[in-house]
Task: structure prediction
Amino acid sequence: MWQISTADIFKCLSDGSRLRILHLLSQRPLCGCHFIEVLGLDQVKVSKLLTYMKRLGMVKATCEANWTVYRLAAPVNPIIAMNLDCLAQCSADVAKLFSTD
Result:
């Protein structure tokens, strides 16, 4: 069912910024500006990270008004799901995200 190889999944998960983005997206769909603010990365870096994950089919993007909203691609690959379940240490990112709403 999933087109992505296990090696590609672990390559993606091995990057801390991509892993943090996936964790945030496991909470809810987000605009690219949220990643810039929460992760403290510049727009170019965030765009490259999201493009990489879109190319792998891990993330989907939709245009809503002037914003691009990102979400995890459904269904979520079980390897990704298991790893996301192990990301309790990223709770500080989630708390920071919701404190800015």
